[in-house]
Amino acid sequence: MRTQDKDAQEMRIRRSSLTWTLVRPGVLTSGAATGRYQVLIEPSEWRNGLISRADVAHYIVGQIDHPFRVR
Question: pTM for the full model?
Answer without folding.
Answer: 0.77
